């Protein structure tokens, strides 16, 4: 049963990550309910949570600062389950929700690409 749950979570993670990468209007996800479900069913050691890691990292990437070289370094070390192309796609799709935020600068994205 653990293998079935792991495969199911892999598919959920893959589909959700693809939606996050391909649809600008879906750049926000909360996977805590999936993690809570795994905990409730005593399946945290099934390997299913690890299949969600790219999705978790993409959601974290949307929340961190994206301005300085230090921010770029932190992103590079934090996003080890994402490919360079996925990171760049998330950064390019990032749309600020209010006037206090700014789009990610192209120069910052280039810095990320160089470091990865």
Spans of at least 5 consecutive residues whose pLDDT stays below 50 are none
User: What is the approximate shape?
Assistant: elongated
Strand content: under 5%
Main sheet attributes: strand count, strand direction, barrel closure = none
Radius of gyration: 15 Å
Distance between the termini: 37 Å
Describe the 3D structure:
With 116 residues, this protein is mainly alpha-helical. The chain has one domain (2-115). The protein contains 7 helices and no strands.
How would you summarize this macromolecular structure in one to three sentences?
With 116 residues, this protein is mostly helical. The chain is built from 7 helices and no strands.
Write out key terms for the chains shown.
single chain; 65% helix; Dilute_dom; GTPase binding; elongated; mainly alpha; MYO5A protein; 116 residues; 7 helices; Vascular_dev_regulator
List the helices and strands and how they pair.
Blueprint: H1 2-22, H2 32-40, H3 48-51, H4 53-63, H5 69-78, H6 84-93, H7 106-115
InterPro entries: Dilute_dom (IPR002710), Vascular_dev_regulator (IPR052072)
GO molecular function: GTPase binding
Protein name: MYO5A protein
């Amino acid at each position: 049963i653990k293998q079935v749950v792991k495969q199911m979570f892999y598919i959920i993670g893959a589909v959700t990550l693809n939606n996050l990468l391909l649809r600008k209007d879906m750049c926000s996800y909360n996977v805590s309910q999936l993690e809570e479900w795994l905990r409730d069913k005593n399946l945290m050691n099934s390997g299913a949570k690890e299949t969600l890691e790219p999705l978790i990292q993409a959601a974290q990437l949307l929340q961190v600062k994206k301005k300085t070289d230090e921010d770029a370094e932190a992103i590079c070390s934090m996003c080890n389950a994402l490919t360079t192309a996925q990171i760049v796609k998330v950064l390019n799709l990032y749309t600020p929700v209010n006037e206090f935020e700014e789009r990610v600068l192209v120069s910052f994205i280039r810095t990320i690409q160089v470091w990865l």
